[in-house]
């Protein structure tokens, strides 16, 4: 885990950048999939558009099927009240439920607690209400039925395993508490906390190179030439 001082510095340094920029840095560092979490998209304050962005450490909550009650840990009280300020609430419900595990009241509470946004590897509800309060929420989909009759919040601050199937292929990701989440209209990227400082070091170089590439292309140069001149010379 990053120290509070380093965490603050990392989050501040990443705020100017897009999720795509961070994914490029993670790809350079040979991190699987550039940290992209497929299937999770912006639902609020707008649906996959606008300038909203969240950057912060993950506060993870793992859900389990109700059939596991009595056999698995269960969080005392409501997990939402235990969310630290300046964190991204990251919810991981069971993959095979259609229930929504997050709604309007939870966002209202997070605003008061000083959290920075919500990411759900599952469904949300009260979509219009989320947008009216301008709260950033990223999720795999929407639903109408609350999660209580299907699953329960079991543990906080633990590693959560995600699965997403697309085109017949299964994508797997692990999110650890304290991993840095950056999410915008392009999607959600998770930076392992052990790579966060390295990402901060190299992402400005990558962005500067891409800006130079774009300028050259707008001036009439070929992509082949400009990529060779700018991306090809990167030392990171």
Automatic annotation (TrEMBL):
Residues given in the record as substrate binding sites: 103-106, 125
Keyword Metal-binding: yes
UniProt cross-references to Gene3D superfamilies, sorted A to Z: Ribonuclease E inhibitor RraA/RraA-like
Pfam family, one: RraA-like
InterPro entries membership: RraA/RraA-like (IPR005493), RraA/RraA-like_sf (IPR036704)
Cofactor: Mg(2+)
Entry binding sites for Mg(2+): 126
Protein name: DlpA domain-containing protein
Organism: Kwoniella heveanensis BCC8398
């Amino acid at each position: 885990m990053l120290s509070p001082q380093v965490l603050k510095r990392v989050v501040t340094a990443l705020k100017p950048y897009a999720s795509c920029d961070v994914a490029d840095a993670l790809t350079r560092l040979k991190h699987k999939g550039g940290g992209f979490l497929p299937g999770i998209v912006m639902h609020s304050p707008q649906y996959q558009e606008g300038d909203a962005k969240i950057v912060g450490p993950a506060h993870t909550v793992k859900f389990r099927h109700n059939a596991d009650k009595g056999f698995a840990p269960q969080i005392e009280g409501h997990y939402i009240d235990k969310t630290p300020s300046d964190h991204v609430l990251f919810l991981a419900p069971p993959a095979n439920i259609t229930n929504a595990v997050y709604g309007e009241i939870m966002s209202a509470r997070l605003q008061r607690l000083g959290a920075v946004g919500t990411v759900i590897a599952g469904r949300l509800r009260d979509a219009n209400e989320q947008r009216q309060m301008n709260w950033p929420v990223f999720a795999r989909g929407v639903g109408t039925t609350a999660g209580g009759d299907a699953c329960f919040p079991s543990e906080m601050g633990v590693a959560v395993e995600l699965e997403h199937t697309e085109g017949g292929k299964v994508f797997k990701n692990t999110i650890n508490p304290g991993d840095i989440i950056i999410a915008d209209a392009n999607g959600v990227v998770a930076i392992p906390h052990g790579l966060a400082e390295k990402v901060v070091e190299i992402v400005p170089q990558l962005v500067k190179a891409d800006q130079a590439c774009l300028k050259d292309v707008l001036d009439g140069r070929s992509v082949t030439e400009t990529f060779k001149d700018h991306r090809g010379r990167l030392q990171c």
